[in-house]
C-alpha cells in the first residue's frame, strides 16, 4: 500500500509587534510599496509646485495688462496647467498600484494568520471561540489595509506638502518657514501624544468587538438548542448585554477621536490665521508681492486641511494598530507543538506507546507510564468507561497534543521528530461525527485525496454504501451539504466520512465511534465496508458498541489510563473480566430495548 503524498506546509514566522508585523509585509513587496511611495511623493510635490505656479501667474498678471501683460501670462499659465495634469497622472498611477499592492498584502496577511492559527494544538481551539478567531483574522486584514492606505493617501502627502511648503516659503521669508516648522511640530506632538494616550481605549473596543462576534457565531451555531429550550429571549438579553459593553467601549474610542479633532482644529485655525495676517502685513509693507500672499494663503490652507487628514489618520492608525496588537496577542502565541521539517517514512505501520505521560492543564494525569505495542497490520479495539483515556490515546497518536513524557513511535520514529502533516498524511480517521464543509458532496469526499479523479470518488462512495442515496438527490454529487453537513442525516454524514477514509487509502486507520450515528441496518452495511477497509492496515478503533469490534484481532480495555485487559475478544469474554461484563451489560440492554419495542 502506498502512503499518500503530502506537500510540506510551511508555518509562517510572524512578528509579534504590530508595527514590525506590518513592515514584514512591506518587505515582501518592496518594489510595489517603493513604487507606490514614489508616485505619491511625486504627486504631492506637483501639488506644491501647482501653488507656486499660481504665484507666478498672479505676479505676471499684476505686472500689467494689454499685449505686454498677456505675453507675460501665457508661460506661467501653461506651466500651471501642465503641473495639474502631471499631478493627476501621478495620483491615478498611485491609485492603480496602491490597489494592487494593498489588496495583495491584505490577502497574504489573512492567509498567513490562518496558516499560523491552524498550527496551534486542539486545546487552543477549545479555549477560544471559533467565530471570534475568524473575526480577528478578517479584522486584521481590514486594519492593515486601512493603515497602508492611510499612509499612502493621508499621511505621506501632508508630510510632503509640509516639506514642500517650507522650501517654497524660504523663497518668500525664511522667518515664515521657521514659524511653520515650529507650529506644525508642536501640533504634531500634541496630536500624536493625545492619540497614543487613547490606545488602550481602542484596544478595549477591538477586544470587545471580537468577543461579541464570537458570542454571536456561538449563538447562531447553537440555534437548535436555543429553540429547544425556549431561550430566544434569554439569549437575546445575553447578547444585548455583550453588545452594550461593546457599544460603551466604542463610544469611548469614538469620543476620544472627536476630542483629537477639536484640539487639531483649534491649533490649525490659529496657525492659518496667523500666517495669513503676517503675509498681508508684509505685502502692505512692500516686502512681498501679491503672488506671494496668494502662495502663503494657498499653502497655509493646504497645510491646514492636509494636517487635519494627517492628525485623524494618525489617530485612526493608532486605533487600527491597537486592533492588530490585540489579535496578535491572541493568535500569534508560540505554538504548543513544534513542527520539524523531517517527514515520517512508513514501511510497516508498527505503533509503540513507550511509557508515556500526559494530562490536561488543571487536571490530574490521564496516562502515567503507559505502554502499548501494536504490530503492523493488527486491528486493535480500545474500550473502557467514559474518562478512561480512549479519546486522548487516539488524539495523541494523531499528535493533536504532545506527550509530556515518554515517546510515541511509528516504525521507530518519534512523532515529535517529524512534521505534523507528514504524520497525518499516513493516517485516515473516521471520527464519531464527521465534520463536513459547506461544499458539494463530491468536494467533501475528495477532501480525503484532493488529486483523486471523479471515478475514484464514486468508487469510494460505493464502498461506503453512500453512492445510492447521493445519486437519488436532485443534484447528486454536486449537492451542497450546508454548514457542518446539516442538510444530511447523521448516518449520511458518517457514510461520507467513511468514504473519505476509503479514498485517502492511508496505511494507518483510526476509527472513533465510526458507526455511532447509524441505524441497525446501516451499521450492518457499514460494518461490511469497514471490514474491507481495515484489510492490510494497522487499525486502532474506539467503540462503545462492542459488537463492532467482534472481528478485531485484539481488544485493549482501559481504566483510569491503565490497561486492565488485553487480548482477543473471544479470550477476554471467556475470562469473565471487565470486557465480558461490558459485553453482557450491553447485550442485556439491547434485549430489554427489543422487548420494550415488541
Describe the structure.
With 598 residues, this protein is an alpha/beta fold. The chain has two domains: 18-331, ABC transporter transmembrane region fold; 351-597, 3-Layer(aba) Sandwich (Rossmann fold), CATH 3.40.50.300. It has 19 helices and ten strands. Strands 6-7-8-3-9-10 form a six-stranded mixed sheet, sandwiched between helices. Strands 2-1-4-5 form a four-stranded antiparallel sheet, covered by helices on one side. Helix 2 (30-62) packs antiparallel against helix 3, helix 3 packs antiparallel against helix 5 (130-170) and helix 7 (199-221) packs antiparallel against helix 9. The protein is elongated and about 120 Å long. Residues 1-8 have low confidence and may be disordered.
Secondary structure: elements and pairs:
Blueprint: H1 18-28, H2 30-62, H3 66-117, H4 122-126, H5 130-170, H6 174-197, H7 199-221, H8 223-228, H9 232-284, H10 290-331, E1 351-359, E2 365-374, E3 379-384, H11 390-397, E4 405-410, E5 413-414, H12 420-424, E6 427-430, H13 441-446, H14 454-463, H15 467-472, H16 490-504, E7 508-512, H17 520-533, E8 538-542, E9 554-559, E10 562-567, H18 569-575, H19 578-597
Parallel strand pairs: 3-8, 3-9, 6-7, 7-8
Antiparallel strand pairs: 1-2, 1-4, 4-5, 9-10
CATH H-level superfamily of the largest domain: ABC transporter type 1, transmembrane domain
Query: Number of helix segments?
Result: 19
Strand order in the sheet with the most strands: 6-7-8-3-9-10
| Strand tally | 10
Q: How would you classify the helix and strand content by structural class?
A: alpha/beta
Q: Quaternary arrangement of the chains shown?
A: single chain
Amount of beta strand: 5-15%
- Rg is 35 Å
Order of helices and strands: HHHHHHHHHHEEEHEEHEHHHHEHEEEHH
| Total individual domains | 2
Major sheet size, sense and barrel closure: 6 strands, mixed
In the CATH hierarchy, the third-tier topology of the largest domain is known as ABC transporter transmembrane region fold
Shape: elongated
Amino acid at each position: 500500500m502506498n502512503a499518500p503524498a503530502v506537500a510540506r506546509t510551511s508555518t509562517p514566522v510572524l512578528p509579534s509587534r504590530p508595527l514590525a508585523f506590518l513592515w514584514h509585509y512591506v518587505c515582501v513587496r518592496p518594489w510595489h510599496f517603493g513604487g507606490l511611495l514614489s508616485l505619491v511623493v511625486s504627486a504631492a510635490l506637483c501639488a506644491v509646485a501647482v501653488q507656486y505656479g499660481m504665484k507666478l501667474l498672479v505676479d505676471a498678471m499684476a505686472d500689467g495688462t494689454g499685449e505686454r501683460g498677456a505675453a507675460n501670462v501665457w508661460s506661467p499659465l501653461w506651466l500651471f496647467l501642465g503641473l495639474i495634469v502631471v499631478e493627476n497622472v501621478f495620483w491615478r498611477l498611485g491609485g492603480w498600484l496602491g490597489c494592487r499592492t494593498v489588496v495583495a498584502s491584505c490577502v497574504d496577511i489573512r492567509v498567513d494568520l490562518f496558516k499560523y492559527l491552524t498550527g496551534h494544538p486542539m486545546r487552543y481551539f477549545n479555549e477560544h471561540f471559533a467565530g471570534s478567531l475568524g473575526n480577528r483574522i478578517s479584522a486584521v486584514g481590514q486594519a492593515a489595509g486601512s493603515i497602508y492606505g492611510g499612509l499612502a493617501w493621508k499621511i505621506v502627502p501632508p508630510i510632503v506638502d509640509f516639506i514642500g511648503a517650507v522650501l517654497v516659503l524660504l523663497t518668500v521669508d525664511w522667518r515664515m518657514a521657521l514659524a511653520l516648522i515650529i507650529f506644525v511640530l508642536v501640533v504634531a506632538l500634541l496630536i500624536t501624544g493625545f492619540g497614543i494616550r487613547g490606545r488602550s481605549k481602542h484596544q478595549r473596543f477591538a477586544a470587545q468587538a471580537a468577543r461579541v462576534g464570537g458570542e454571536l457565531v456561538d449563538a447562531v451555531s447553537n440555534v437548535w438548542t436555543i429553540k429547544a429550550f425556549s431561550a430566544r429571549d434569554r439569549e437575546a438579553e445575553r447578547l444585548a448585554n455583550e453588545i452594550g459593553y461593546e457599544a460603551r467601549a466604542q463610544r469611548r474610542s469614538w469620543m476620544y477621536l472627536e476630542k483629537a479633532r477639536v484640539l487639531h482644529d483649534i491649533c490649525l485655525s490659529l496657525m492659518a490665521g496667523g500666517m495669513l495676517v503676517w503675509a498681508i502685513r508684509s505685502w502692505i509693507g512692500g516686502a512681498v508681492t501679491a503672488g506671494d500672499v496668494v502662495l502663503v494663503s494657498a499653502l497655509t490652507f493646504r497645510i491646514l486641511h492636509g494636517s487635519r487628514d494627517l492628525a485623524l489618520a494618525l489617530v485612526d492608525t493608532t486605533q487600527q494598530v491597537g486592533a492588530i496588537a490585540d489579535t496578535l496577542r491572541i493568535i500569534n502565541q508560540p505554538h504548543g507543538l513544534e513542527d520539524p521539517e523531517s517527514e515520517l517514512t512508513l514501511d510497516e505501520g508498527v505503533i509503540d506507546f513507550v511509557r508515556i505521560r500526559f494530562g490536561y492543564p488543571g487536571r490530574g494525569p490521564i496516562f502515567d507510564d503507559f505502554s502499548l505495542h501494536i504490530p503492523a497490520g493488527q486491528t486493535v479495539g480500545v474500550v473502557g468507561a467514559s474518562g478512561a483515556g480512549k479519546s486522548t490515546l487516539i488524539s495523541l497518536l494523531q499528535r493533536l497534543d504532545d506527550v509530556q513524557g515518554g515517546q510515541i513511535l511509528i516504525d521507530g520514529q518519534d512523532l515529535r521528530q517529524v512534521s505534523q502533516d507528514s504524520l497525518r498524511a499516513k493516517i485516515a480517521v473516521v471520527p464519531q461525527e464527521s465534520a463536513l464543509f459547506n461544499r458539494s458532496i463530491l468536494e467533501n469526499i475528495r477532501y480525503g485525496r484532493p488529486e483523486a479523479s471523479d471515478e475514484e470518488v464514486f468508487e469510494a462512495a460505493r464502498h461506503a454504501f453512500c453512492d445510492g442515496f447521493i445519486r437519488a438527490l436532485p443534484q447528486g454529487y454536486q449537492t451542497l451539504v450546508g454548514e457542518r453537513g446539516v442538510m444530511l442525516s447523521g448516518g449520511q454524514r458518517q457514510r461520507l466520512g467513511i468514504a473519505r477514509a476509503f479514498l485517502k487509502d492511508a496505511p494507518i486507520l483510526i476509527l472513533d465511534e465510526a458507526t455511532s450515528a447509524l441505524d441497525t441496518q446501516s451499521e450492518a452495511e457499514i460494518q461490511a465496508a469497514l471490514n474491507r477497509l481495515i484489510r492490510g492496515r494497522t487499525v486502532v478503533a474506539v467503540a462503545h458498541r462492542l459488537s463492532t469490534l467482534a472481528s478485531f484481532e485484539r481488544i485493549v480495555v482501559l481504566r483510569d489510563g491503565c490497561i486492565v485487559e488485553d487480548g482477543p475478544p473471544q479470550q477476554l469474554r471467556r475470562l469473565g473480566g471487565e470486557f465480558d461484563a461490558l459485553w453482557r451489560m450491553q447485550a442485556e440492554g439491547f434485549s430489554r430495548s427489543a422487548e420494550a419495542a415488541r
